[in-house]
Amino acid sequence: MKFRAARHTNILQPIIDFYTKIIGLKVLGDFQNHEGYDGVFIGEINENSTWHLEFTVSWQQPLHRPDVDDLLVFYPDKIEFENILKRIKEANYPTVQPQNPYWRRNGIALLDPDGYGVVIVKPAYLLEQ
Question: What CATH number belongs to 3-57?
Answer without folding.
Answer: 3.10.180.10
